[in-house]
Amino acid sequence: MRLLVLGGTGFVGGTVVREAVQRGHEVTCTARGVTGEPPGGVRHVRLDRDDPGALEPLAGAEFDAVVDVAAGSHPWVAEAVRTLGPRAGHWTYVSTVNVYADTATPGQSPGSELRTPLYDAANTANGDPDAYGRVNVASEDEVRDKLGDRAFVVRPGLITGPGDTMDRFGYWPARFARGGRVLAPDTPEQPIQYIDVRDLAAWIVDAATTGRTGTFDGVGQSMALRDLLEGIAAAVGVPVEMVAVPAKDLERAGVNPWSGPRSLPLWLPPSHYGLASHDARPALEAGLRPRSLHDAALGALEHERALGLDRPRQAGLSPEEERAVLKMLERSS
Ligand SMILES: NC(=O)c1ccc[n+]([C@@H]2O[C@H](COP(=O)([O-])OP(=O)(O)OC[C@H]3O[C@@H](n4cnc5c(N)ncnc54)[C@H](OP(=O)(O)O)[C@@H]3O)[C@@H](O)[C@H]2O)c1
């Protein structure tokens, strides 16, 4: 198969490229060359999708399948569909579960209501906090309208695994590997779901090979956050004492949910439980094969160790912050 990956040097795209190369496919990728280089044997077309006519170097080229992961802009997606769509045999667009209008209700699936599309804009547009989801709705529309009979639209939620740049899932195996008293959210009712990037990439290459089409949430089974954390701790295997603290006390201590500095990653407020509890069955029935939590946790830990467990993180608490929060909570109890 002749495969083109638009954005094939990053986390998701790079994993798709490696999976396809390993299966013996002929792979081309586009990127500016800022994030990294593709593996040997892959043709790298250097271009900036913000430049007018950026994809012209590929106009006229024929591909059995195209995968577009550089998805932060509706104009990028529209140009790709216009320039490359007519000669592409199959088209994968990597979207996001942030396209759904309702972030709170569990069990949603591709038929659920979407946000209002935001056309002709990038996801950084106008300081609109929903722009990321809305631009992806517009981009999905573009792909389905023009290439619906060949289009595979995948909406992942939390993606983990080697190459992860967000530092969220990886916080937990890295934290458990240090042992000791681990601050955790006491929210037994909170759902969470994730997909390992290697399983997502394998599914995307499968779809391109077999011609699978349709729109799917690219998610694994939803589970309780508490079970996820216990499963990760068991996979890491270092003795820990989990100190589970109610949400209101974490908030009082200035700990943020989900992501970013001074956060407990993956902890969500109830207003966002829907984002972490989509119905995984359609994707599983369509061939997505999530690996075990044990394997996903060890893959994330290996990646964390390669980056350095002591590095400043984009998401999570530093050891000093965690100690200070534990001390403060003990004093006030
Ligand atoms: N990470 C998650 O948990 C998550 C969850 C849900 C959905 N997603 C979706 O998954 C998709 C891929 O995410 P990712 O984490 O793989 O992103 P990433 O690691 O940032 O990779 C982005 C790719 O696009 C290329 N690129 C960026 N700007 C470009 C430009 N101006 N012109 C040409 N190429 C450009 C990058 O290469 P250069 O920088 O070298 O150009 C790189 O190859 C995104 O659409 C995201 O919405 C991710």
Automatic annotation (TrEMBL):
<dbReference type="GO" id="GO:0005737">
    <property type="term" value="C:cytoplasm"/>
</dbReference>
<protein>
    <submittedName>
        <fullName>Nucleoside-diphosphate-sugar epimerase</fullName>
    </submittedName>
</protein>
<dbReference type="InterPro" id="IPR001509">
    <property type="entry name" value="Epimerase_deHydtase"/>
</dbReference>
<dbReference type="InterPro" id="IPR051783">
    <property type="entry name" value="NAD(P)-dependent_oxidoreduct"/>
</dbReference>
<feature type="domain" description="NAD-dependent epimerase/dehydratase">
    <location>
        <begin position="4"/>
        <end position="74"/>
    </location>
</feature>
<dbReference type="Pfam" id="PF01370">
    <property type="entry name" value="Epimerase"/>
</dbReference>
<dbReference type="GO" id="GO:0004029">
    <property type="term" value="F:aldehyde dehydrogenase (NAD+) activity"/>
</dbReference>
<dbReference type="InterPro" id="IPR036291">
    <property type="entry name" value="NAD(P)-bd_dom_sf"/>
</dbReference>
